[in-house]
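Usage

Read records sequentially. Each one opens with the input sequence:
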Amino acid sequence: MIAILWDASHIWGYLLLHAVRSTGIPFRVLKGLDIAQTGLSGKMLMVPGGSARRKAEALGSAGAEEVRRFVRNGGRYVGFCGGAGLALAGNLGLCPWNRDGMTDRLQHLVSGHFSCSLSSESALIPPELAGKTALLPVWWPGRFNEPEKNDAVEVLARYRAPGPDLYVADMPYASMPADILAEWNAMYGVTLRPSLLDGRPCAVAGTFGRGSWLLSYSHLETPADFPGSEQAGSWFLHILRTWCGSSLAMNALPALNFDALPVLWEDNTLLCANTALKGLIALARELGLLFPRNSWLLGWRSGVPGAQFNSLNAALSTTLSLPPDARRLRLWKERRHDFEQAFSLFSQGARSWLLARRLADTLADSAPGMLPRELLVDQRRALFGSPMFGGGLCEQLLDMLEELV
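and closes with the structure output:
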């Protein structure tokens, strides 16, 4: 049995859910409050990306101690991105390392693939990849603070070179000539070269009591239909074989397209919300504020709440694909009215904000200050919350949908 900690995961929770579900291994989805109240059992706790700070808050001291007890007594912990950050010294303390802060915000806004060197000595690395270089996907990762003296942590993978699809914010890094990057640095003091390229750890492992943990800032659960992610999926499945004792015949994670998921729950409120959201996304793409990255992820112009649009699209599409069993119908009866009201306000406000944001871009040179950026920031915060921690109307909608999941 695999337990998945859901809090503050959003689209990354849906990616992990898709990956685990495809294997056929029994699993259950838990919130931090569930763990605090009823504990953990089974072989493994998997924690998807998202906000490590908010995950820690959801667990509370009782939930955090239960996770430590679970691992100390022989359980396995696997964390991706935010789930990796949750296990570090400042939070759960399974790993003695800390998270390395980033004074330059651009160094966090990295997405796509890195070429990484993999350990040749760990049983947690698939034999076909051991000691080799692999393309691994990262989505706005944090960084491990690796101490000079390291005896307790095994480094499984290190960043080495940018992949062909790497972005820094909304700029394709691989298409920028080295001389131009150097010129920008000299003229403007802007450094787009990701500091992750300096051989920093990407994935690490270790022990805690009788248990073990694996932390990866690469999203190994990324579907294989995103070109270049096949090796990550192979590694993900190897971890499950090694730590769950499962004989999985599959060698790749299946494709994922939220917009193509079958509709099993034909609820008019959910269907109308889904149609309205697709309209907002189409408008944003027409305005040049969102753009396709792959079949399940939209990229976005800097300052546009693309993460929230992606998460809401994943949540609505997944909810519609679920069978409307008695528990979901009971919950939805309690939430439908609140959802309808909140979504109506969100849809109207988001449409206005997208158009205003595009107008602000147009006026930036010809009439600077005519549409104050502060006003746009305030409206965005009310609708979408903060870029890192969410909030606003969008968070209320996500919470209601995730209850159904």
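Summary fields computed downstream for this record:
- The mean pLDDT is 91.
- DSSP finds eleven helices and 15 strands in the chain.
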